[in-house]
Amino acid sequence: MEIVIAVVVLVALAGVGAVVGLVRPRRRRDSLAPREAEQAGRSSLGPRSDELPLPGVGDDAEVPRDSPSRAVDTVDLPDAGGDDPAAAAPARELDRPAAAAGRLVRLRERLARSNSALGQGLLALLSRDSLDEATWEEVEETLLLADVGFGPTTEIVDSLRERVRVLGTREPEQLRALLREELLKAVGTDVDRSLATTRHDDRPAVVMVVGVNGTGKTTTVGKIARVLVAEDKDVVLGAADTFRAAAAEQLATWGERVGVPTVRSEREGADPASVAFEAVKTGIDAEADVVLVDTAGRLQNKAGLMDELGKVKRVVEKHGPVDEVLLVLDATTGQNGLRQAAVFSEVVDVTGIVLTKLDGTAKGGIVVAVQRSLGVPVKLVGLGEGPDDLAPFEPEAFVDALIS
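-> structure tokens emitted (404 positions)
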């Protein structure tokens, strides 16, 4: 009988050991929680240690499909070394964002390599032996299909017709020069396209980024952070899109790659205005240069959510005026993008446009249309999914690429 009891005990202990062997410690979150971190008596500010892939343009609409999935969260424990510094794990090397000058050169080359149906189509029409009424209607149609907009299209065509008639020219180079001048006039060369990211005496500059899901909004916030880090600015990110956990995770991933802290809530559905307020407060306490606040991707037809976006701005302004409100638009959405822009502008007073997916295609005329519609300039453009594929918009480089 004693032998049977001993066997039963040994089997039971073996089963317990097997269960214990499957339990692994979970990794602590290192992103900053606005209130929870304070109450827990610890600071969660600082880069995370896991190596997730950078999200791509448009990934803020859903969880990235290429994200690695893991059934169990594991961490590698350091070797036993006591207080020996040599036994400590080596620090992870941060990304070094490309300098602004090099980024601009690369974007110019990429834009110039793209075959623009807009610029080349117009030159082909203007170079015909006879510029009759039908030809001018085709010129007008080409501009409209490029999303230039009715008003700017009429102005460009009327001015070109008059100048071609007066000069009586059909030389390709002269026509190219005339077209360049008219397009530059439409795009605008005398507006201030700089970002308001200069620190104030007692607080950082505050930049809010708004836009609908799918335009690359959260990705754009991460890329702007890289641009500012490359300019040696201290940045704090605010993950005020609290309705999608993936948005906060993506933003934290962008920040940790360049050593930028992210203020976020650990609770999904938390008040976004509170998170934005804490982000600015953190920036003030840390004497940062810039605070970038990512907001939820609002659909322009949901009045309640748009009102909430206005609330975020009002709460943030308790620390001081918001310096910049950037609206992220997908350059390929055309007139729908203009309707989005108009509604956002009414709610939060947009100061600049970021155009993503602007690759010099026939839809490049959206630059003209959106500026004319809102009365604010395009300040940044993105031409790819790389981490440094974002740069200031340059009218001359853009127009030259269209008609190259």
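The mean pLDDT is 76.
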